[in-house]
Write a structure and sequence with these properties.
There is one protein chain. The protein is an alpha/beta fold. It has one domain (about 1-230): Alpha-Beta Complex (Spore Coat Polysaccharide Biosynthesis Protein SpsA, Chain A). The protein is about 40% helix and about 20% strand. It has helices spanning about 10-25, 45-50, 70-80, 100-105, 130-145, 160-170, 180-190, 210-230, and strands spanning about 1-5, 30-40, 60-65, 85-90, 110-115, 125, 155-160, 195-200, 200. The protein has a 4-stranded mixed beta sheet with strand order 4-7-5-8. A 3-stranded parallel beta sheet has the order 1-2-3, sandwiched between helices. Strands 6-9 form a two-stranded parallel sheet. Strand 1, helix 1 (about 10-25) and strand 2 form a beta-alpha-beta unit. The longest helix has 22 residues, at about 210-230. It is globular. The two termini are about 30 Å apart.
Length: about 230
């Protein structure tokens, strides 16, 4: 499991305790590892993550990027360090509850993508209207550029076959929030079976995404990705 973290000292300890409880309640998924990738936090994120003990069946690993490089860079590092047969990417706030993992596991796919768009009634707390509208517009742009056919690329809850995850880590180039688009596009180009799965989700007010600043960066990165994929054919 890979968790990118930036200034998550308030939420990360509780998240890791909850993950440990859940994973130990499912012995069939053990042994397991949780890799927290600190994206250059300026608070005590790294220190708190490092204080939580591992167990014989559940290994907690901390990796630090040293500087704030972006969520994509953090996830890429985590994927490259993973060793499991399957790798789950999850946000530090558990906006999609860890129990939703079971839905991804039964999808029968190389990549199971948690989706907020397929069954919007599963959203317990919705995003502000402006943010939701920006997300929909970004999804339309991805379709126009031929980068995605998925309804929701940006939900931070994805399950990948381990060998595929590590192979993709060597190919991914985007450091920002648009990394999800690149991950799915490159997985699809490899011939992987990618399935979108409706999951429960709730908006977290302390989200690290800044709609205007990060939204513009994501649009730029979408065009950069389209150019890079076009050049490769």
């Amino acid at each position: 499991m890979v968790i990118p973290a930036f200034n998550e000292e308030r939420r990360l300890p509780g998240t890791l305790v909850r993950l440990a409880e859940y994973l130990h309640s499912r012995p069939e998924v053990l042994p397991a590892e949780v890799i927290v990738v600190d994206d250059g936090s300026t608070d005590r994120t790294a220190a708190l993550a490092g204080e939580l003990p591992s167990s014989p069946q559940l290994t907690l690993r901390l990796e630090s990027l040293g500087a704030n490089r972006g969520k994509g860079a953090a996830v890429r590092r985590g994927l490259s360090l993973s060793r499991g047969k399957w790798v789950l990417i999850s946000d530090a706030d558990l906006a999609s509850p860890i129990e939703e993992l079971e839905k991804l596991q039964v999808a029968g796919a190389d990549v199971a993508v948690g989706s907020r768009a397929l069954r919007r009634e599963l959203i317990a707390r919705r995003q502000p209207l402006a943010r939701d509208a920006l997300g929909r517009c970004f999804n339309v742009l991805l379709r126009v550029l031929g980068l995605s056919t998925f309804r929701d690329t940006q939900c931070g809850f994805k399950l990948l076959r381990g060998d595929l995850a590590r192979a993709l880590a060597e190919e991914l180039t985007l450091d920002g929030f648009a990394f999800d688009v690149e991950l799915l596009a490159r997985a699809t180009r490899r011939g992987a079976k990618v399935v979108e799965v409706p999951v429960r989700w709730y908006h977290v007010e302390e989200s690290r995404v800044r709609p205007l600043r990060h939204g513009l960066a994501m649009v730029r990165d979408a065009f950069v990705l389209r150019w890079r994929l076009w050049r490769r054919g």
